[in-house]
């Protein structure tokens, strides 16, 4: 099971809510709860996560990023998944 922070849930829910509405945001929330062990973030975890992110940005291009596929970098890239709007 993957680990996720409650901040990740907040950001994902906000983004899906803004772009696709409450129904899709609730569906995404339930999916995250089923697939991830959500961890409340305290100061120590927040600082360690920031340090880990800085360390991953130092990788040369072409190396995989833990959150992205091969050759992709997180800096300046919209990594959020694209969902189809229900029409």
Question: Explain this structure to me?
Answer:
- With 87 residues, this protein is mainly α.
- Helices cover 51% and strands 9% of the residues.
- It is built from 3 helices and 2 strands, in the order βααβα.
- It has a two-stranded parallel sheet.
- The protein is elongated.
- Mean pLDDT is 76; it is low at 70-75.
Structural class: mainly alpha
Overall pLDDT level: 76
Instruction: Supply Rg.
Output: 15 Å
What percentage of residues falls in helices of 4 or more residues?
Answer: 40-55%
Shape: elongated
> Biggest sheet: strands, sense, closure?
2 strands, parallel
Measured by DSSP, the beta-strand proportion falls in 5-15%
**Low-confidence parts lasting 5 or more residues at pLDDT below 50?**
70-75
Count of runs of 4 or more consecutive helical residues: 3
Order of helices and strands: EHHEH
Ends apart, CA distance between termini: 33 Å
The number of strands is 2
Order of strands across the biggest sheet?
Answer: 1-2
Which features does this protein show?
mainly alpha; 51% helix; 3 helices; two-stranded parallel sheet; 87 residues; elongated
């Amino acid at each position: 099971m993957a680990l996720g922070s409650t901040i990740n849930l907040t950001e994902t829910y906000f983004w899906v809510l803004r772009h696709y509405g409450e129904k899709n945001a609730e569906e995404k929330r339930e999916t995250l709860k089923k697939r991830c062990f959500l961890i409340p973030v305290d100061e120590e975890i927040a600082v360690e996560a920031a340090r880990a992110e800085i360390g991953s940005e130092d990788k040369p291009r072409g190396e995989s990023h833990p959150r992205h596929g091969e050759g992709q970098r997180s800096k300046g890239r919209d990594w959020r998944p694209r969902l189809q709007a229900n029409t």
